[in-house]
Design a protein that fits this description.
homodimer, alpha/beta, Rossmann fold, five-stranded parallel beta sheet, three-stranded parallel beta sheet, globular
Protein backbone atom coordinates (compact mmCIF):
# COMPACT_ATOMS: atom_id res chain seq x y z
CA UNK A 1 0.00 0.00 0.00
CA UNK A 2 1.31 3.38 -0.99
CA UNK A 3 1.16 5.88 1.83
CA UNK A 4 -0.02 9.21 0.51
CA UNK A 5 1.90 12.38 1.28
CA UNK A 6 0.01 14.88 3.37
CA UNK A 7 0.03 18.31 1.73
CA UNK A 8 -1.14 21.54 3.34
CA UNK A 9 -1.91 24.21 0.73
CA UNK A 10 -2.13 27.93 1.44
CA UNK A 11 -3.72 30.18 -1.18
CA UNK A 12 -5.90 27.49 -2.79
CA UNK A 13 -8.44 29.99 -4.07
CA UNK A 14 -5.99 32.04 -6.16
CA UNK A 15 -5.22 31.23 -9.80
CA UNK A 16 -1.98 29.40 -9.00
CA UNK A 17 -3.37 27.74 -5.88
CA UNK A 18 -6.45 26.46 -7.71
CA UNK A 19 -4.27 24.92 -10.42
CA UNK A 20 -2.10 23.29 -7.75
CA UNK A 21 -5.11 21.94 -5.89
CA UNK A 22 -6.46 20.39 -9.10
CA UNK A 23 -3.06 18.96 -10.06
CA UNK A 24 -2.60 17.34 -6.66
CA UNK A 25 -6.10 15.86 -6.79
CA UNK A 26 -5.55 14.46 -10.30
CA UNK A 27 -2.32 12.74 -9.28
CA UNK A 28 -3.88 10.69 -6.49
CA UNK A 29 -0.62 10.75 -4.51
CA UNK A 30 -1.67 13.21 -1.84
CA UNK A 31 -3.92 13.75 1.13
CA UNK A 32 -4.72 17.42 0.72
CA UNK A 33 -5.70 19.92 3.36
CA UNK A 34 -6.15 23.62 2.81
CA UNK A 35 -5.21 26.56 5.02
CA UNK A 36 -7.33 29.71 4.76
CA UNK A 37 -7.28 32.87 6.78
CA UNK A 38 -10.36 33.75 8.85
CA UNK A 39 -11.22 36.65 6.51
CA UNK A 40 -11.65 34.18 3.62
CA UNK A 41 -13.75 31.65 5.50
CA UNK A 42 -17.08 32.48 3.89
CA UNK A 43 -15.84 33.04 0.35
CA UNK A 44 -17.79 30.92 -2.16
CA UNK A 45 -14.46 29.59 -3.50
CA UNK A 46 -13.56 28.27 -0.03
CA UNK A 47 -16.97 26.68 0.37
CA UNK A 48 -16.57 24.98 -3.01
CA UNK A 49 -13.35 23.40 -1.79
CA UNK A 50 -15.06 22.26 1.38
CA UNK A 51 -17.86 20.69 -0.66
CA UNK A 52 -15.26 18.47 -2.31
CA UNK A 53 -14.59 16.93 1.11
CA UNK A 54 -11.24 18.66 1.57
CA UNK A 55 -10.37 19.56 5.13
CA UNK A 56 -10.13 23.33 5.62
CA UNK A 57 -8.04 24.81 8.41
CA UNK A 58 -9.37 28.30 9.07
CA UNK A 59 -6.51 29.81 11.01
CA UNK A 60 -4.95 33.10 11.97
CA UNK A 61 -1.31 32.52 11.06
CA UNK A 62 -0.28 34.80 13.93
CA UNK A 63 -1.58 32.14 16.34
CA UNK A 64 1.26 29.68 16.54
CA UNK A 65 -0.62 27.00 18.48
CA UNK A 66 -3.35 26.83 15.81
CA UNK A 67 -0.68 26.75 13.16
CA UNK A 68 1.08 23.85 14.89
CA UNK A 69 -2.17 21.86 14.84
CA UNK A 70 -2.61 22.45 11.11
CA UNK A 71 1.03 21.56 10.39
CA UNK A 72 1.11 18.42 12.50
CA UNK A 73 1.96 15.42 10.32
CA UNK A 74 2.25 17.54 7.15
CA UNK A 75 4.81 16.25 4.66
CA UNK A 76 4.70 19.17 2.22
CA UNK A 77 3.62 22.75 2.90
CA UNK A 78 2.84 24.65 -0.32
CA UNK A 79 2.23 28.38 -0.31
CA UNK A 80 0.54 30.06 -3.25
CA UNK A 81 -0.14 33.20 -1.28
CA UNK A 82 -0.85 36.37 -3.28
CA UNK A 83 1.87 38.83 -4.29
CA UNK A 84 0.93 41.32 -1.59
CA UNK A 85 1.17 38.78 1.24
CA UNK A 86 4.57 37.25 0.51
CA UNK A 87 6.26 38.40 3.69
CA UNK A 88 3.40 36.93 5.72
CA UNK A 89 4.92 33.54 4.89
CA UNK A 90 7.74 34.28 7.33
CA UNK A 91 5.29 33.61 10.15
CA UNK A 92 4.84 30.04 8.95
CA UNK A 93 8.48 29.04 8.82
CA UNK A 94 9.41 28.47 12.44
CA UNK A 95 6.18 26.52 12.95
CA UNK A 96 6.89 24.44 9.83
CA UNK A 97 10.35 23.65 11.16
CA UNK A 98 9.06 22.78 14.65
CA UNK A 99 6.35 20.56 13.17
CA UNK A 100 8.95 18.66 11.14
CA UNK A 101 7.50 19.50 7.73
CA UNK A 102 9.57 17.52 5.22
CA UNK A 103 9.43 20.04 2.39
CA UNK A 104 8.26 23.60 2.05
CA UNK A 105 7.33 25.04 -1.32
CA UNK A 106 7.21 28.79 -0.74
CA UNK A 107 5.37 31.07 -3.13
CA UNK A 108 7.58 31.30 -6.20
CA UNK A 109 5.60 30.42 -9.38
CA UNK A 110 6.84 33.40 -11.38
CA UNK A 111 9.34 34.12 -14.13
CA UNK A 112 13.04 33.34 -13.82
CA UNK A 113 14.75 36.52 -12.59
CA UNK A 114 17.80 37.54 -10.56
CA UNK A 115 17.53 37.00 -6.80
CA UNK A 116 17.74 40.72 -6.14
CA UNK A 117 17.50 44.06 -7.89
CA UNK A 118 15.38 43.38 -10.97
CA UNK A 119 11.88 42.85 -9.54
CA UNK A 120 10.41 43.91 -6.20
CA UNK A 121 8.22 40.81 -6.33
CA UNK A 122 11.28 38.59 -6.67
CA UNK A 123 13.19 40.51 -3.98
CA UNK A 124 10.44 39.80 -1.45
CA UNK A 125 10.40 36.13 -2.39
CA UNK A 126 14.18 36.08 -1.84
CA UNK A 127 13.66 37.30 1.72
CA UNK A 128 11.44 34.29 2.37
CA UNK A 129 13.85 31.86 0.66
CA UNK A 130 16.68 33.23 2.80
CA UNK A 131 14.67 32.73 5.98
CA UNK A 132 13.98 29.14 4.93
CA UNK A 133 17.71 28.55 4.38
CA UNK A 134 18.52 30.24 7.69
CA UNK A 135 16.25 27.71 9.40
CA UNK A 136 17.50 24.81 7.27
CA UNK A 137 14.02 23.62 6.25
CA UNK A 138 14.01 21.30 3.20
CA UNK A 139 12.50 23.26 0.32
CA UNK A 140 11.76 23.39 -3.38
CA UNK A 141 11.43 26.60 -5.38
CA UNK A 142 9.18 26.17 -8.44
CA UNK A 143 9.01 28.86 -11.09
CA UNK A 144 6.71 28.57 -14.07
CA UNK A 145 7.64 31.54 -16.24
CA UNK A 146 4.68 33.50 -17.58
CA UNK A 147 1.29 31.92 -18.26
CA UNK A 148 -0.02 31.35 -21.79
CA UNK A 149 -3.22 32.90 -20.47
CA UNK A 150 -1.58 36.35 -20.30
CA UNK A 151 0.84 35.95 -23.21
CA UNK A 152 -1.25 36.16 -26.39
CA UNK A 153 -2.13 39.11 -28.65
CA UNK A 154 -5.43 40.71 -29.43
CA UNK A 155 -6.63 40.11 -33.01
CA UNK A 156 -8.22 42.72 -35.32
CA UNK A 157 -11.56 40.84 -35.20
CA UNK A 158 -11.58 41.20 -31.41
CA UNK A 159 -12.53 37.53 -31.12
CA UNK A 160 -9.97 36.63 -28.45
CA UNK A 161 -10.49 39.74 -26.33
CA UNK A 162 -13.05 37.90 -24.16
CA UNK A 163 -10.14 35.96 -22.62
CA UNK A 164 -7.81 38.92 -22.01
CA UNK A 165 -7.63 41.08 -18.91
CA UNK A 166 -6.71 44.12 -21.02
CA UNK A 167 -6.89 43.49 -24.78
CA UNK A 168 -3.65 44.60 -26.43
CA UNK A 169 -1.07 43.44 -28.91
CA UNK A 170 2.04 45.18 -27.65
CA UNK A 171 5.43 43.99 -28.89
CA UNK A 172 8.23 44.80 -26.42
CA UNK A 173 11.65 45.75 -27.72
CA UNK A 174 12.41 43.80 -30.87
CA UNK A 175 10.08 40.96 -29.93
CA UNK A 176 12.83 38.33 -29.99
CA UNK A 177 13.39 37.63 -26.27
CA UNK A 178 12.70 33.94 -25.63
CA UNK A 179 10.30 33.36 -22.75
CA UNK A 180 9.58 30.42 -20.48
CA UNK A 181 5.81 29.89 -20.72
CA UNK A 182 3.49 27.45 -18.96
CA UNK A 183 -0.25 26.93 -19.31
CA UNK A 184 -1.81 27.90 -15.98
CA UNK A 185 -3.67 24.57 -15.99
CA UNK A 186 -0.35 22.69 -16.13
CA UNK A 187 1.15 24.45 -13.09
CA UNK A 188 -0.49 22.01 -10.69
CA UNK A 189 0.39 19.00 -12.85
CA UNK A 190 4.05 19.99 -12.70
CA UNK A 191 3.85 20.73 -8.95
CA UNK A 192 2.35 17.29 -8.25
CA UNK A 193 5.34 15.67 -9.95
CA UNK A 194 7.99 17.97 -8.50
CA UNK A 195 6.96 17.58 -4.86
CA UNK A 196 6.78 13.79 -5.19
CA UNK A 197 10.43 13.62 -6.31
CA UNK A 198 13.52 13.49 -4.07
CA UNK A 199 15.69 14.90 -6.86
CA UNK A 200 14.04 18.29 -6.43
CA UNK A 201 14.71 18.58 -2.70
CA UNK A 202 16.58 21.82 -1.89
CA UNK A 203 16.57 22.74 -5.55
CA UNK A 204 15.13 25.37 -7.88
CA UNK A 205 13.00 23.98 -10.73
CA UNK A 206 11.41 25.70 -13.70
CA UNK A 207 8.53 24.40 -15.77
CA UNK A 208 7.48 25.20 -19.32
CA UNK A 209 5.13 24.11 -22.03
CA UNK A 210 6.84 26.24 -24.68
CA UNK A 211 9.73 28.67 -24.99
CA UNK A 212 8.56 31.44 -27.33
CA UNK A 213 9.33 35.02 -28.23
CA UNK A 214 6.55 37.52 -28.86
CA UNK A 215 7.30 37.37 -32.57
CA UNK A 216 6.89 33.58 -32.51
CA UNK A 217 3.67 33.85 -30.51
CA UNK A 218 2.26 36.29 -33.04
CA UNK A 219 3.19 34.04 -35.95
CA UNK A 220 1.32 31.13 -34.31
CA UNK A 221 -1.68 33.39 -33.60
CA UNK A 222 -1.75 34.55 -37.22
CA UNK A 223 -1.41 31.06 -38.62
CA UNK A 224 -4.19 29.64 -36.45
CA UNK A 225 -6.58 32.59 -36.82
CA UNK A 226 -5.94 33.59 -40.41
CA UNK A 227 -5.81 37.17 -39.14
CA UNK A 228 -2.91 39.61 -39.11
CA UNK A 229 -1.74 40.76 -35.68
CA UNK A 230 -1.29 44.54 -35.61
CA UNK A 231 1.39 45.03 -33.00
CA UNK A 232 1.88 48.23 -31.02
CA UNK A 233 5.60 48.65 -30.40
CA UNK A 234 6.95 49.47 -26.94
CA UNK A 235 10.66 50.32 -26.91
CA UNK A 236 13.17 49.34 -24.23
CA UNK A 237 13.34 53.01 -23.25
CA UNK A 238 9.57 53.16 -22.80
CA UNK A 239 9.72 50.05 -20.63
CA UNK A 240 12.52 51.59 -18.55
CA UNK A 241 10.50 54.79 -18.18
CA UNK A 242 7.46 52.84 -17.05
CA UNK A 243 9.55 51.15 -14.33
CA UNK A 244 10.94 54.50 -13.17
CA UNK A 245 7.45 56.03 -13.03
CA UNK A 246 6.00 53.07 -11.16
CA UNK A 247 8.85 53.22 -8.62
CA UNK A 248 8.31 56.94 -8.09
CA UNK A 249 4.57 56.46 -7.61
CA UNK A 250 5.09 53.61 -5.15
CA UNK A 251 7.64 55.57 -3.13
CA UNK A 252 4.85 58.03 -2.28
CA UNK A 253 2.83 55.25 -0.70
CA UNK A 254 4.88 52.05 -0.34
CA UNK A 255 2.01 49.80 0.78
CA UNK A 256 -0.56 50.78 -1.87
CA UNK A 257 -1.46 47.44 -3.52
CA UNK A 258 -2.44 49.04 -6.83
CA UNK A 259 0.82 50.94 -7.07
CA UNK A 260 2.72 47.77 -6.19
CA UNK A 261 0.87 45.89 -8.92
CA UNK A 262 1.76 48.54 -11.49
CA UNK A 263 5.41 48.22 -10.50
CA UNK A 264 5.25 44.42 -10.64
CA UNK A 265 3.86 44.54 -14.17
CA UNK A 266 6.41 47.06 -15.45
CA UNK A 267 9.27 45.11 -13.86
CA UNK A 268 7.99 41.86 -15.37
CA UNK A 269 8.21 43.52 -18.79
CA UNK A 270 11.66 44.88 -18.04
CA UNK A 271 12.96 41.55 -16.79
CA UNK A 272 11.37 39.51 -19.60
CA UNK A 273 12.02 41.77 -22.58
CA UNK A 274 14.86 44.17 -21.77
CA UNK A 275 17.02 42.00 -19.51
CA UNK A 276 15.73 38.77 -21.13
CA UNK A 277 15.92 36.92 -17.84
CA UNK A 278 13.02 34.51 -18.29
CA UNK A 279 14.97 32.10 -20.47
CA UNK A 280 16.30 28.55 -20.12
CA UNK A 281 19.89 29.85 -20.42
CA UNK A 282 19.54 32.19 -17.45
CA UNK A 283 17.61 29.58 -15.45
CA UNK A 284 20.46 27.15 -16.06
CA UNK A 285 23.00 29.80 -14.97
CA UNK A 286 21.04 30.33 -11.76
CA UNK A 287 21.13 26.60 -11.04
CA UNK A 288 17.53 25.66 -11.85
CA UNK A 289 16.59 22.12 -12.82
CA UNK A 290 14.44 21.80 -15.95
CA UNK A 291 11.15 20.06 -15.14
CA UNK A 292 10.77 18.82 -18.74
CA UNK A 293 14.02 16.89 -18.43
CA UNK A 294 12.93 15.50 -15.06
CA UNK A 295 9.53 14.29 -16.36
CA UNK A 296 9.92 13.34 -20.01
CA UNK A 297 6.79 11.17 -19.82
CA UNK A 298 4.60 14.20 -19.11
CA UNK A 299 3.59 16.31 -22.11
CA UNK A 300 2.33 19.71 -21.03
CA UNK A 301 -0.11 21.74 -23.14
CA UNK A 302 1.56 23.59 -26.01
CA UNK A 303 0.87 27.24 -26.73
CA UNK A 304 -0.62 26.15 -30.05
CA UNK A 305 -3.15 23.87 -28.32
CA UNK A 306 -3.95 26.66 -25.90
CA UNK A 307 -4.58 29.22 -28.63
CA UNK A 308 -6.84 26.84 -30.57
CA UNK A 309 -9.01 26.76 -27.46
CA UNK A 310 -8.92 30.53 -27.16
CA UNK A 311 -10.04 30.89 -30.77
CA UNK A 312 -12.84 28.39 -30.13
CA UNK A 313 -14.15 30.60 -27.32
CA UNK A 314 -13.39 27.97 -24.68
CA UNK A 315 -10.86 29.79 -22.47
CA UNK A 316 -11.65 31.47 -19.16
CA UNK A 317 -10.24 34.91 -18.42
CA UNK A 318 -7.83 34.78 -15.46
CA UNK A 319 -8.52 36.79 -12.31
CA UNK A 320 -12.21 36.87 -13.29
CA UNK A 321 -13.76 35.02 -10.37
CA UNK B 1 50.50 23.10 -26.54
CA UNK B 2 48.27 23.86 -23.60
CA UNK B 3 47.16 27.48 -23.51
CA UNK B 4 47.38 28.78 -19.99
CA UNK B 5 44.45 30.56 -18.40
CA UNK B 6 45.06 34.18 -17.56
CA UNK B 7 44.18 34.91 -13.94
CA UNK B 8 43.96 38.36 -12.36
CA UNK B 9 44.21 38.19 -8.57
CA UNK B 10 43.09 40.93 -6.20
CA UNK B 11 44.25 40.77 -2.58
CA UNK B 12 47.40 38.75 -3.23
CA UNK B 13 49.16 40.05 -0.13
CA UNK B 14 46.55 38.86 2.36
CA UNK B 15 46.65 35.43 3.98
CA UNK B 16 44.11 33.90 1.59
CA UNK B 17 45.46 35.75 -1.45
CA UNK B 18 49.04 34.64 -0.75
CA UNK B 19 47.92 31.02 -0.50
CA UNK B 20 46.01 31.37 -3.77
CA UNK B 21 48.97 32.97 -5.53
CA UNK B 22 51.22 30.11 -4.42
CA UNK B 23 48.68 27.46 -5.39
CA UNK B 24 48.25 28.94 -8.86
CA UNK B 25 52.03 29.13 -9.34
CA UNK B 26 52.51 25.51 -8.23
CA UNK B 27 49.91 24.22 -10.67
CA UNK B 28 51.58 25.66 -13.76
CA UNK B 29 48.23 26.10 -15.51
CA UNK B 30 48.00 29.86 -15.22
CA UNK B 31 49.43 33.15 -16.38
CA UNK B 32 49.06 35.20 -13.23
CA UNK B 33 48.73 38.94 -12.88
CA UNK B 34 48.04 40.80 -9.68
CA UNK B 35 45.84 43.83 -9.05
CA UNK B 36 46.83 46.12 -6.18
CA UNK B 37 45.43 49.44 -5.11
CA UNK B 38 47.71 52.50 -5.30
CA UNK B 39 47.90 52.69 -1.48
CA UNK B 40 49.59 49.26 -1.40
CA UNK B 41 52.08 49.90 -4.18
CA UNK B 42 55.14 50.25 -1.98
CA UNK B 43 54.35 47.51 0.51
CA UNK B 44 57.25 45.04 0.82
CA UNK B 45 54.80 42.20 0.17
CA UNK B 46 53.87 43.75 -3.19
CA UNK B 47 57.50 44.24 -4.10
CA UNK B 48 58.21 40.60 -3.27
CA UNK B 49 55.52 39.56 -5.76
CA UNK B 50 57.00 41.86 -8.37
CA UNK B 51 60.45 40.34 -7.80
CA UNK B 52 58.99 36.97 -8.83
CA UNK B 53 58.33 38.44 -12.26
CA UNK B 54 54.59 38.68 -11.79
CA UNK B 55 52.92 41.58 -13.54
CA UNK B 56 51.40 44.03 -11.07
CA UNK B 57 48.53 46.30 -12.07
CA UNK B 58 48.52 49.22 -9.68
CA UNK B 59 45.07 50.61 -10.24
CA UNK B 60 42.39 52.71 -8.63
CA UNK B 61 39.33 50.52 -9.06
CA UNK B 62 37.18 53.64 -9.33
CA UNK B 63 38.88 54.36 -12.68
CA UNK B 64 37.01 52.17 -15.09
CA UNK B 65 39.33 52.69 -18.06
CA UNK B 66 42.37 51.49 -16.07
CA UNK B 67 40.32 48.59 -14.83
CA UNK B 68 39.33 47.63 -18.38
CA UNK B 69 43.02 47.51 -19.34
CA UNK B 70 43.82 45.20 -16.44
CA UNK B 71 40.83 42.98 -17.21
CA UNK B 72 41.45 42.71 -20.93
CA UNK B 73 41.98 39.08 -21.92
CA UNK B 74 41.51 37.82 -18.35
CA UNK B 75 39.93 34.38 -18.11
CA UNK B 76 39.47 34.26 -14.35
CA UNK B 77 39.20 37.17 -11.91
CA UNK B 78 39.81 36.11 -8.30
CA UNK B 79 39.15 38.45 -5.41
CA UNK B 80 40.65 37.78 -2.00
CA UNK B 81 39.94 41.29 -0.80
CA UNK B 82 39.91 41.85 2.96
CA UNK B 83 36.74 41.61 5.06
CA UNK B 84 36.36 45.38 5.32
CA UNK B 85 36.51 45.97 1.57
CA UNK B 86 33.96 43.42 0.36
CA UNK B 87 31.52 45.92 -1.09
CA UNK B 88 34.36 47.52 -3.07
CA UNK B 89 34.16 44.44 -5.30
CA UNK B 90 30.90 45.79 -6.74
CA UNK B 91 32.98 48.31 -8.68
CA UNK B 92 34.74 45.49 -10.52
CA UNK B 93 31.70 43.65 -11.75
CA UNK B 94 30.45 45.75 -14.65
CA UNK B 95 34.02 46.04 -15.94
CA UNK B 96 34.52 42.28 -15.62
CA UNK B 97 31.34 41.71 -17.59
CA UNK B 98 32.28 44.23 -20.28
CA UNK B 99 35.77 42.73 -20.58
CA UNK B 100 34.28 39.27 -21.11
CA UNK B 101 35.89 37.67 -18.05
CA UNK B 102 34.99 33.98 -18.26
CA UNK B 103 34.75 33.34 -14.53
CA UNK B 104 34.73 35.52 -11.45
CA UNK B 105 35.65 34.11 -8.06
CA UNK B 106 34.45 36.75 -5.60
CA UNK B 107 35.81 36.86 -2.09
CA UNK B 108 34.14 33.97 -0.28
CA UNK B 109 36.78 31.73 1.42
CA UNK B 110 34.95 31.54 4.75
CA UNK B 111 32.82 29.09 6.67
CA UNK B 112 29.58 27.66 5.31
CA UNK B 113 26.77 29.85 6.64
CA UNK B 114 23.26 30.96 5.64
CA UNK B 115 23.11 33.56 2.85
CA UNK B 116 21.61 36.13 5.19
CA UNK B 117 21.00 36.80 8.85
CA UNK B 118 23.68 34.81 10.64
CA UNK B 119 26.90 36.72 9.88
CA UNK B 120 27.41 40.32 8.74
CA UNK B 121 30.48 39.15 6.84
CA UNK B 122 28.40 36.62 4.92
CA UNK B 123 25.58 39.12 4.35
CA UNK B 124 27.98 41.50 2.60
CA UNK B 125 29.36 38.69 0.46
CA UNK B 126 25.78 37.84 -0.51
CA UNK B 127 25.30 41.39 -1.80
CA UNK B 128 28.24 40.87 -4.13
CA UNK B 129 27.05 37.42 -5.22
CA UNK B 130 23.63 38.87 -6.01
CA UNK B 131 25.18 41.61 -8.12
CA UNK B 132 27.15 38.98 -10.04
CA UNK B 133 23.96 37.01 -10.69
CA UNK B 134 22.14 40.21 -11.68
CA UNK B 135 24.81 40.78 -14.34
CA UNK B 136 24.91 37.11 -15.33
CA UNK B 137 28.70 36.80 -15.03
CA UNK B 138 29.94 33.17 -14.81
CA UNK B 139 31.15 32.63 -11.26
CA UNK B 140 32.38 30.17 -8.67
CA UNK B 141 31.95 30.63 -4.92
CA UNK B 142 34.67 28.83 -2.93
CA UNK B 143 34.36 28.44 0.82
CA UNK B 144 37.07 26.79 2.88
CA UNK B 145 35.57 26.56 6.36
CA UNK B 146 37.91 27.67 9.13
CA UNK B 147 41.69 27.36 8.91
CA UNK B 148 43.64 24.80 10.96
CA UNK B 149 45.91 27.74 11.77
CA UNK B 150 43.24 29.31 14.01
CA UNK B 151 41.55 26.11 15.21
CA UNK B 152 43.93 24.53 17.73
CA UNK B 153 44.13 24.80 21.54
CA UNK B 154 46.84 26.22 23.75
CA UNK B 155 48.69 23.58 25.79
CA UNK B 156 49.68 23.86 29.49
CA UNK B 157 53.38 23.98 28.52
CA UNK B 158 52.71 27.02 26.36
CA UNK B 159 54.74 25.43 23.57
CA UNK B 160 52.24 26.09 20.77
CA UNK B 161 51.38 29.65 21.82
CA UNK B 162 54.00 31.04 19.45
CA UNK B 163 51.71 30.14 16.54
CA UNK B 164 48.47 31.53 18.03
CA UNK B 165 47.10 35.04 17.61
CA UNK B 166 45.60 34.90 21.10
CA UNK B 167 46.57 31.79 23.06
CA UNK B 168 43.43 30.12 24.47
CA UNK B 169 41.79 26.76 24.80
CA UNK B 170 38.13 27.69 24.79
CA UNK B 171 35.54 24.98 24.16
CA UNK B 172 32.30 26.39 22.76
CA UNK B 173 29.00 24.83 23.77
CA UNK B 174 29.39 21.08 24.22
CA UNK B 175 32.36 20.92 21.83
CA UNK B 176 30.66 18.48 19.48
CA UNK B 177 29.80 20.70 16.48
CA UNK B 178 31.53 19.26 13.41
CA UNK B 179 33.51 21.88 11.48
CA UNK B 180 34.78 22.11 7.94
CA UNK B 181 38.52 22.85 8.27
CA UNK B 182 41.21 23.54 5.67
CA UNK B 183 44.93 24.19 6.09
CA UNK B 184 45.52 27.76 4.91
CA UNK B 185 48.34 26.44 2.71
CA UNK B 186 45.88 24.18 0.88
CA UNK B 187 43.44 26.97 0.03
CA UNK B 188 45.39 27.90 -3.10
CA UNK B 189 45.90 24.26 -4.11
CA UNK B 190 42.14 23.75 -4.04
CA UNK B 191 41.49 27.04 -5.86
CA UNK B 192 43.91 26.10 -8.66
CA UNK B 193 41.91 22.91 -9.24
CA UNK B 194 38.46 24.45 -8.86
CA UNK B 195 38.98 27.29 -11.34
CA UNK B 196 40.42 24.91 -13.94
CA UNK B 197 37.26 22.80 -13.91
CA UNK B 198 34.07 23.39 -15.92
CA UNK B 199 32.04 21.40 -13.40
CA UNK B 200 32.39 24.22 -10.88
CA UNK B 201 31.09 26.97 -13.17
CA UNK B 202 28.17 28.83 -11.56
CA UNK B 203 28.44 26.62 -8.51
CA UNK B 204 29.30 26.84 -4.82
CA UNK B 205 32.17 24.60 -3.70
CA UNK B 206 33.56 23.88 -0.24
CA UNK B 207 37.00 22.53 0.55
CA UNK B 208 38.25 20.66 3.58
CA UNK B 209 41.21 18.78 4.89
CA UNK B 210 39.36 17.47 7.93
CA UNK B 211 35.92 17.68 9.50
CA UNK B 212 36.47 17.90 13.25
CA UNK B 213 34.73 19.02 16.41
CA UNK B 214 36.61 20.92 19.12
CA UNK B 215 36.52 17.79 21.28
CA UNK B 216 38.14 15.79 18.46
CA UNK B 217 40.75 18.50 17.89
CA UNK B 218 41.65 18.47 21.56
CA UNK B 219 41.97 14.69 21.60
CA UNK B 220 44.40 14.85 18.67
CA UNK B 221 46.36 17.68 20.35
CA UNK B 222 46.61 15.64 23.57
CA UNK B 223 47.63 12.47 21.79
CA UNK B 224 50.36 14.19 19.77
CA UNK B 225 51.69 16.40 22.58
CA UNK B 226 51.33 14.07 25.55
CA UNK B 227 49.84 17.04 27.40
CA UNK B 228 46.32 17.49 28.77
CA UNK B 229 44.33 20.35 27.24
CA UNK B 230 42.68 22.42 29.95
CA UNK B 231 39.62 23.80 28.21
CA UNK B 232 37.79 26.95 29.29
CA UNK B 233 34.09 26.46 28.61
CA UNK B 234 32.04 29.09 26.80
CA UNK B 235 28.30 28.37 26.85
CA UNK B 236 25.87 29.01 24.00
CA UNK B 237 24.34 31.80 26.10
CA UNK B 238 27.75 33.44 26.49
CA UNK B 239 28.28 33.25 22.73
CA UNK B 240 24.85 34.78 22.12
CA UNK B 241 25.63 37.55 24.61
CA UNK B 242 28.92 38.28 22.88
CA UNK B 243 27.12 38.66 19.55
CA UNK B 244 24.56 41.00 21.11
CA UNK B 245 27.28 43.11 22.71
CA UNK B 246 29.30 43.30 19.50
CA UNK B 247 26.20 44.36 17.56
CA UNK B 248 25.41 47.06 20.08
CA UNK B 249 28.99 48.37 19.99
CA UNK B 250 29.05 48.42 16.18
CA UNK B 251 25.72 50.23 15.97
CA UNK B 252 27.39 53.19 17.71
CA UNK B 253 29.94 53.43 14.91
CA UNK B 254 29.02 51.19 11.96
CA UNK B 255 32.25 51.65 9.99
CA UNK B 256 34.75 51.08 12.83
CA UNK B 257 36.93 48.21 11.53
CA UNK B 258 37.84 46.97 15.02
CA UNK B 259 34.19 46.82 16.06
CA UNK B 260 33.32 45.06 12.82
CA UNK B 261 36.08 42.53 13.46
CA UNK B 262 34.79 41.83 16.97
CA UNK B 263 31.33 41.21 15.52
CA UNK B 264 32.74 38.97 12.78
CA UNK B 265 34.55 36.84 15.37
CA UNK B 266 31.56 36.50 17.68
CA UNK B 267 29.27 35.63 14.74
CA UNK B 268 31.74 33.04 13.48
CA UNK B 269 31.55 31.37 16.89
CA UNK B 270 27.77 31.58 16.90
CA UNK B 271 27.45 30.18 13.40
CA UNK B 272 30.03 27.43 13.92
CA UNK B 273 29.16 26.29 17.43
CA UNK B 274 25.59 27.36 18.26
CA UNK B 275 23.93 27.10 14.85
CA UNK B 276 26.43 24.44 13.68
CA UNK B 277 26.36 25.79 10.12
CA UNK B 278 29.92 24.99 9.06
CA UNK B 279 29.22 21.33 8.35
CA UNK B 280 29.08 19.12 5.27
CA UNK B 281 25.37 18.47 5.88
CA UNK B 282 24.47 22.15 5.78
CA UNK B 283 26.79 22.78 2.83
CA UNK B 284 25.02 20.00 0.97
CA UNK B 285 21.62 21.49 1.86
CA UNK B 286 22.77 24.86 0.49
CA UNK B 287 23.79 23.22 -2.78
CA UNK B 288 27.58 23.25 -2.42
CA UNK B 289 29.77 20.79 -4.30
CA UNK B 290 32.36 18.96 -2.19
CA UNK B 291 35.89 19.63 -3.51
CA UNK B 292 37.20 16.35 -2.07
CA UNK B 293 34.75 14.41 -4.22
CA UNK B 294 35.69 16.50 -7.25
CA UNK B 295 39.45 15.94 -6.81
CA UNK B 296 39.96 12.51 -5.22
CA UNK B 297 43.57 12.44 -6.50
CA UNK B 298 44.50 15.44 -4.33
CA UNK B 299 45.22 14.73 -0.67
CA UNK B 300 45.13 17.91 1.39
CA UNK B 301 47.05 18.29 4.64
CA UNK B 302 45.36 16.66 7.60
CA UNK B 303 44.90 18.46 10.91
CA UNK B 304 47.15 15.83 12.47
CA UNK B 305 50.00 16.63 10.05
CA UNK B 306 49.47 20.32 10.69
CA UNK B 307 49.65 19.93 14.46
CA UNK B 308 52.83 17.85 14.29
CA UNK B 309 54.41 20.84 12.57
CA UNK B 310 53.04 23.22 15.20
CA UNK B 311 54.53 21.09 17.96
CA UNK B 312 57.85 21.04 16.11
CA UNK B 313 57.91 24.85 16.16
CA UNK B 314 57.65 25.04 12.38
CA UNK B 315 54.39 26.93 11.94
CA UNK B 316 54.06 30.63 11.19
CA UNK B 317 51.50 32.72 13.05
CA UNK B 318 48.82 34.06 10.69
CA UNK B 319 48.34 37.81 10.29
CA UNK B 320 51.89 38.33 11.54
CA UNK B 321 53.48 39.92 8.50
Amino acid sequence: MVVKQKVLLLGATGETGASILKGLQESGNFDIEVLVRPASKNKPSVQKIQEQGIKIWCIDINESSDLMSALSGVDVLISAIGPHGLLEQKKLLQAAKSAGVKRIVPCAFITVAPPRGAMLLRDEKEEVYNDIKFLGIPYTIIDVGYWYQISFPSLPSGKVDYAMIVPNSTIHGDGTAPNILTDLRDVGRFVARIIYDDRTLNKYVYTYGDILSENEINRIAEELSGEKVEPTPMSNEQIEDSVAQAKAALSQNPQDPMKRTVLYISQYKHSKYVRKDNSPAYADYLGYLDARSLYPEFTPLSFREFFVEVLAGKMKKVYSS
